[in-house]
Write a structure and sequence with these properties.
about 160 residues, mainly alpha, Histidine-rich protein II, Plasmodium_HRP
């Protein structure tokens, strides 16, 4: 009986051990999935930030184009950031600010082509407007001339009829 009793407890302990393993494995799987869900969440925000960054460039490029002082606006922004970096009095921050400054220039070089194309599109738009205005004016002049010729023709015919 003692042997059977001990064997029963050993079996219970064995089953309990496996149940605990299953329980832990379940939580480990939850943690693993939660980690990936968090990664997906962060990646989503990182993508949003990336898109927002490009949208901000397009917005700034548009304003810079309107102001016709891209260089001045660019330097004013740097002076503003440099002033804050100096206020911080942290060499490490200044080092990172320098890195950011270089990275910003690299990004500017990358976006310069886009700005160039945007400027081309802006100019092309004005050229198209000028072309349409000229065409419109030519059409108006043509219609005015035709109208005048018709009026002159009618006046001459009327005059000729009156004299007979």
């Amino acid at each position: 009986v003692d042997d059977a009793h001990h064997a029963h407890h050993v079996a219970d302990a064995h089953h309990a051990h496996h149940a605990a393993d299953a329980h832990h494995a379940h939580h480990a799987a939850d943690a693993h999935h939660a980690h990936h869900a968090a990664d997906a969440h962060h990646a989503h925000h990182a993508a949003d930030a990336h898109h927002a960054h490009h949208a901000a460039y397009a917005h700034h490029a548009h304003h810079a184009s309107d102001a016709h002082h891209a260089a001045d606006a660019h330097h004013a922004a740097y002076a503003h950031h440099a002033h804050h970096a100096a206020d911080a009095h942290h060499a490490a921050d200044a080092h990172h600010a320098t890195d950011a400054h270089h990275a910003h220039h690299a990004a500017d070089a990358h976006h310069a082509t886009d700005a160039h194309h945007a400027a081309d599109a802006h100019h092309a738009h004005h050229a198209a407007d000028a072309h349409h205005a000229a065409a419109h004016h030519a059409t108006d002049a043509h219609h005015a001339a035709a109208h005048h010729a018709t009026d002159a023709h009618h006046a001459a015919a009327h005059h000729e009829a009156a004299t007979h």
